[in-house]
Write a structure and sequence with these properties.
Blueprint lengths: L11 E4 L4 E3 L7 E6 L6 H19 L2 E7 L3 H11 L5 E3 L4 H5 L3 E6 L2 E6 L2 E5 L5 E6 L6 H8 L4
Parallel strand pairs: 3-4, 4-5
Antiparallel strand pairs: 1-2, 1-5, 3-8, 6-7, 8-9
Helix pairs in contact: 1-4
């Protein structure tokens, strides 16, 4: 797990649109990486919609938004199309990204423990260093909070 003010790992992943994304290719701009449990669930849909609706504001601040979950590339493609998401969704089926950012933890669903993604967001500065992290967040208003953390240009 990267520490604040330390370089983030050089990760690559497949996106819903079929492209490959490398974090290292985004140096020189702010990068918001948000981890969410599952495509097309109510909370994850609301979170994606908030980032979508604020995406033009993120762009004005030279920030790229990336969503990451363990869903398949096909699932991401369907979710992105249905929600009209203008940013990439990385398919992390092997949990490489999730483990690098330490977002896989035991959770309880209907009284049964299981391993799952804890909703978390990370802000990477233009030099590729971790600037800020939010863990176990509540969806409502979160995208706006992240946006307001990024300096205006």
């Amino acid at each position: 797990m990267p520490d604040i003010d330390k370089k983030v790992p050089s990760l690559k992943g497949s996106c819903g649109d079929g492209s490959e994304l490398a974090l290292s290719s985004l140096k020189g701009q702010w990068v918001v990486v948000y981890f969410y449990p599952r495509d097309s669930t109510p909370g994850c849909t609301s979170e994606a919609q908030e980032f979508r609706d604020l995406y033009p504001e993120f762009c004005k601040r030279h920030a790229q938004v990336i969503g990451v979950s363990r869903d398949s590339v096909k699932s991401h493609a369907n979710f992105a199309t249905k929600q009209q998401l203008p940013f990439p969704l990385v398919s992390d089926t092997d949990e490489t990204w999730c483990r690098a950012f330490d977002v896989i933890h035991e959770k309880v669903l209907y009284g049964k423990p299981h391993m799952g993604i804890v909703r978390s967001t990370f802000l990477i500065d233009p030099d590729g260093k971790l600037s800020r992290e939010w863990r176990g967040i509540k969806v409502a208003g979160h995208a706006r909070n992240v946006l307001e953390t990024i300096p205006s240009q």
